[in-house]
Design goal:
The chain is mostly helical. The chain folds into three domains: about 150 residues, Cytochrome Bc1 Complex, Chain D, domain 2 (Orthogonal Bundle), CATH 1.10.760; about 100 residues, no CATH class; about 110 residues, Cytochrome Bc1 Complex, Chain D, domain 2, CATH 1.10.760.10. The protein has 19 helices and five strands. Helix 2 packs across helix 6, helix 4 packs across helix 6 and helix 13 packs across helix 18. The chain is globular. It binds heme C (3 copies). This is Cytochrome C.
Length: about 425
C-alpha cells in the first residue's frame, strides 16, 4: 500500500513535470496565408518608419546582400547565429506568414512554424510596440522585393543549440505589455520613451548583460559592450564632464557631427543613420527621454579632471604621430575641424571614456564612408599603424584630457581587439 502510494506520487509528479515542460517548450504552428493584399501608400510610409526605428535592416541585411534577405552573422557568447530572410519570398522568406504569425514573432519570439527564436532578435523590446506599428511594419515588409535566399546554418554551442531552452530564458526576461503613455509626462517624452524602450531597443546595447545574456535590470542604460566597442552609459548625460545639450544629442543621433562631442562610429553609426530617416520630432523625442535618464545612486561620481601631467616618452611619440597622421583632420588648425565644428579630440567620449576600447576601434577601423553621412569619413589605420603606434597615440590623446586617470589596460586592450579582428 505504502509502496503503491509512493509510485503513484512519483508518477503524478512525472506527468505534471512532463506536462509543464511540454507546455513551456511547445508552441503551435500558425497556418500559412497566400500573399496578402498590397497596402496603401500611407500605411507603407508608416511601416517604413517603424522598420527604420527598429533597425531591422541593420541586422537583416548582410554586407553586399539584398535588403532584408538576412545572412548577417551575429557572434554571441553562445555561438554564431545568422539573421533570417524577412523579405516576402514565400519559401525562403516570410511571404506566407499571416499578420498573427508576424505579431507573435515580434512579441514572443516564436517563428510561424512554432520554433523558438533566439533573443539576439530583440523581441523582448519589440514586444512593447503598439499593434498598429507592428501591423504597419508587416505591411511594409510584405511590399519589399522578395528575395530567394536561405541563411547559413547556425553554430550554437550545446545546450543552446536546443531551441526550446529559450522558453526558460523567456520566463526570466520576456514580460511587459505594449507601452502606454504616462499621464504625468509630456507627449514628446512619452514618444521618446516609446521609441527608446520599444523599437529602438537602445538598452540592449547600452546595458550590462548577465551571464546568460539578459540585460541586468538594475543597471539598465549604465553602459555595455557590443562587438568589441563600449556602448557608453546613457544615464546622466546632462551631468557629464562635458554635458550634452538637446541640440548636440539630436545631431549625434541623426548621423551628424555633434558640436563638442563628435559623431557616431562603430555599431552606433547604422543606428544613427536609421534615426536620421525618421521625422525630426522623433529624434527630439528620443533626445528628451535620454537626457531625462538620471544616474542611479550607486554610480560613482566622475573624478575631477586635472591637466598638465608631464608626458611620458611614449606620449611624446604619440604627439608626433598625431601631427603626421591625424592633425590634417583633427589638429587645431585643420580646415575640416572649423567647417564641421568638429570637437578637439580630447573632449570626445572616445578619449574621455573609462575604457580605451572605442578610441582604439576608431583608430583601427576608421569611420566608413556612407552616403548619408559623407562628411565624416575617417580612414582605417589598422594596416598602417602597429600596436606601439596605436598605444602611443592613445596615451598622448588621453594625456590631453584627463591626465590623472591614465588608462592602465591600454596594451592589453589593443592586443585583444587586434586578435578579434584576425578572426574570420
Ligand atoms: C540585433 C539584430 C536584429 C534586429 C535589429 C532585428 N532582428 Fe529580426 N532576427 C534577428 C535574428 C538573429 C533572427 C533569427 C533568430 C533565430 O533564428 O533564432 C531574427 C528573426 C526574425 C524573424 C523570424 C523570421 C524567421 O524566418 O523565423 C522576424 C519576423 C524578424 N526577425 C523580424 C524583424 C523585424 C521586423 C525587425 C525590426 C523591427 C527585426 N527583426 C530586427 C536579429 C535581428
Ligand atoms: C547595436 C548596439 C547599439 C544600439 C542598438 C544603440 N547603440 Fe548607442 N552606441 C553604441 C555604441 C557602440 C556607441 C559608441 C560609439 C562611438 O564611440 O562612436 C554608442 C553611442 C551612443 C551615444 C553617445 C554616448 C556618448 O557618451 O558618447 C548615444 C547618445 C547613444 N549611443 C544613444 C543611443 C540611442 C538613443 C539608441 C536607441 C535609439 C542607441 N544608442 C542604440 C551601440 C548601440
Ligand atoms: C581624413 C580625415 C581624418 C583623419 C586623417 C583622421 N580622422 Fe579621426 N575622424 C575624422 C572624422 C570626420 C571623424 C568623425 C567626426 C568626429 O567624431 O569628430 C573622426 C573621428 C575620430 C574619433 C572619434 C571621436 C568621437 O566622436 O568620439 C577619434 C577618436 C579619432 N577620429 C581619432 C583619430 C586619430 C587618432 C587619427 C590619426 C591616427 C585620426 N583620427 C585621423 C576624420 C579623420
Amino acid at each position: 500500500m505504502k509502496r503503491k502510494t509512493i509510485i503513484g506520487v512519483v508518477l503524478a509528479i512525472g506527468v505534471v513535470g512532463l506536462g509543464f515542460a511540454f507546455w513551456m517548450m511547445w508552441r503551435p504552428e500558425i497556418a500559412t496565408v497566400s500573399q496578402p493584399l498590397k497596402a496603401d501608400r500611407e500605411t507603407l510610409d508608416r511601416g517604413r518608419r517603424v522598420v527604420e526605428a527598429g533597425d531591422c535592416a541593420v541586422c537583416h541585411t548582410r554586407p553586399g546582400g539584398a535588403y532584408m534577405a538576412g545572412g548577417l552573422p551575429l557572434v554571441t557568447p553562445f555561438g554564431t547565429l545568422f539573421t533570417t530572410n524577412i523579405t516576402p519570398d514565400p519559401e525562403s522568406g516570410i511571404g506566407k506568414w499571416s499578420l498573427d504569425a508576424f505579431e507573435r514573432a515580434m512579441r514572443e519570439g516564436i517563428a510561424r512554424d512554432g520554433h523558438f527564436l533566439y533573443p539576439a532578435f530583440p523581441y523582448v523590446h519589440y514586444r512593447k510596440m503598439s499593434d498598429a506599428d507592428i501591423a504597419d511594419a508587416y505591411a511594409y515588409l510584405m511590399s519589399v522585393d522578395p528575395i530567394t535566399y536561405t541563411a547559413p546554418q547556425n553554430h550554437m554551442v550545446f545546450p543552446m543549440n536546443f531551441r526550446p531552452l529559450v522558453s526558460f530564458w523567456n520566463l526570466l526576461f520576456l514580460h511587459g505589455d505594449p507601452l502606454e503613455p504616462l499621464p504625468n509626462q509630456s507627449a514628446q517624452w512619452n514618444r521618446g520613451r516609446y521609441l527608446v524602450e520599444g523599437a529602438g531597443h537602445c538598452s540592449s546595447c547600452h546595458s550590462p548583460l548577465n551571464l546568460i545574456g539578459g540585460e541586468k535590470s538594475s543597471e539598465r542604460f549604465n553602459g555595455g559592450v557590443v562587438d568589441g566597442w563600449t556602448a557608453p552609459a546613457l544615464r546622466g548625460m546632462t551631468e557629464a564632464q562635458h554635458p550634452w545639450s538637446e541640440a548636440q544629442l539630436v545631431a549625434y543621433l541623426t548621423g551628424e557631427v555633434a558640436e563638442g562631442h563628435g559623431a557616431a562610429a562603430g555599431p552606433m553609426l547604422p543606428v544613427s543613420l536609421s534615426i536620421a530617416q525618421l521625422p525630426t520630432e522623433d529624434a527630439h523625442a528620443i533626445a528628451q527621454y535620454i537626457l531625462d535618464l538620471k544616474k542611479t545612486s550607486s554610480d560613482a561620481p566622475s573624478p575631477p579632471c586635472t591637466y598638465g601631467v608631464k608626458p611620458s616618452a611614449r606620449a611624446l611619440m604619440g604627439a608626433s604621430l598625431f601631427d603626421g597622421a591625424c592633425a590634417s583632420c583633427h589638429g587645431g588648425a585643420a580646415p575640416m575641424r572649423v567647417i564641421e565644428s568638429r570637437p578637439a579630440l580630447a573632449n570626445t567620449s572616445a578619449v574621455m571614456a573609462d575604457s580605451p576600447r572605442n578610441l582604439i576601434q576608431t583608430i583601427l577601423q576608421g569611420i566608413p564612408m556612407s552616403s548619408a553621412a559623407s562628411s565624416h569619413y575617417m580612414p582605417a589605420f589598422a594596416p598602417s599603424l602597429d600596436d606601439t603606434h596605436v598605444a602611443a597615440l592613445a596615451e598622448y590623446l588621453r594625456n590631453q584630457s584627463c591626465a590623472n586617470r591614465p588608462w592602465t589596460d591600454l596594451d592589453k586592450t589593443i592586443k585583444s581587439i587586434r586578435a578579434q579582428e584576425q578572426q574570420p
